Amino acid sequence: MNHAVSLSGVTVGYEHNVVFSHLSLEIPVGQFAGIVGPTGCGKTTLLKTILGTQPVFSGDVRLVGYPVNKVPPGTIGYVPQLESVDWTFPVTVEQVILMGLYTNNRIWPWPTKEERERVHDLADKLGIHDCLHHHIINISGGQRQRAFLARALINNPKLLVLDEPTSGVDIKTQHDVLHLLGDINSEGITILLTTHDLNAVASHLPWVICFNNGVVAQGKPRDIFTNEILTKTYGGDIIIVEYQGHFLIANSTPLHLQEHN
Questions:
Q1: Helix axis angle, 113-126 relative to 141-153, nearest 10°?
Q2: Angle at the Cα of 121 (from 119 to 123), degrees rounded to 5?
Q3: DSSP code at position 203
């Protein structure tokens, strides 16, 4: 089977602190997968390893068949957490999208006519065409997410990686973003994202990876979201309710007790 992401026996950490060791993980081409787990469990380090920005102690990392350090430019699109972006930077939505071009080894610093047409096509597709000339500080959280998604898609990547794409936005925008990602995935782009929103994952994603310094379990949400697996992943008792085919997942520890822990 062809894999968009393949990690074999990978050990990663910072100086003498190992985050995960001997990790093996394969994500098939065309998959739409979400990584879930508690804060500090290594999700971000895993994404950095996949993106090639985190050195590995040992093991092999391959993306769409290439060693991670030899992946052709433009093969991977990346959308960072919105919280990590400086929204006061003087740039328009159109300029944000065009920034995605400079991950390639370009000869000319300015965009071609075809590339500008690509920007407008993406903006139309993602519903932000009317915002192209607006400063990013003056648009909504959902529009910002779509602008950075367009930036990641400008090079027609084979793999799209997103770090917490549903954080910092309202519930409707969360669902809109995940529906949009589902549409993009249906066009053949492999998508891998991290998220803390188990309910959104249960509703929208076909595949989930429970992670806590290693893979606890992976599979379809219906098979993976069990009290046993989620308790092992998060270290606390989890309540799971299914109603009319939908899941509701919550921590069973009352809030007033959590506040005193």
A1: 140
A2: 70
A3: H
φ and ψ of 10, to 5 deg: -90, 130
Q: What is the rounded CA–CA span in Å between residue 67 and residue 45?
A: 18
Residue type, 178: L
Residues facing 135 on adjacent strands: 92
Q: Confirm if 95 and 111 have CB atoms less than 8 A apart.
A: no
Pairing of strands 66-67, 58-63: antiparallel
Strand order in the sheet with 58-63: 17-28, 3-14, 58-63, 66-67
Residue 259 has pLDDT above 80, yes or no: no
d(CA 169, CA 149): 15
CA–CA gap between residue 27 and residue 226 (Å, rounded):
22
* Res 239: pLDDT: 76
pTM here is 0.88
Q: SS3 of 128, please? A: coil
Residue 92 is given by DSSP the state B
SS3 category, 230: helix
Distance in angstroms (rounded) separating the CA atoms of residues 130 and 105: 30
Strands 32-36 and 207-211: parallel
φ, ψ of residue 229 in degrees (nearest 5): -70, -45
Helices vs strands, H then E, count in the chain = 9, 12
Q: What percentage of the chain reaches a pLDDT higher than 70?
A: 91
Compute how many other C-beta atoms are within 10 angstroms of the C-beta atom of residue 36. 27
Task: Name the nearest CA neighbour of 56 among 99, 105, 22.
Answer: 22
Cα separations (Å) of 24 from 36, 58, 134, 191, 214? 17, 12, 44, 18, 9
- Angle, CA of 168, 233 and 47, to the nearest 5°: 55
**What local confidence, expressed as pLDDT, does residue 255 receive?**
42
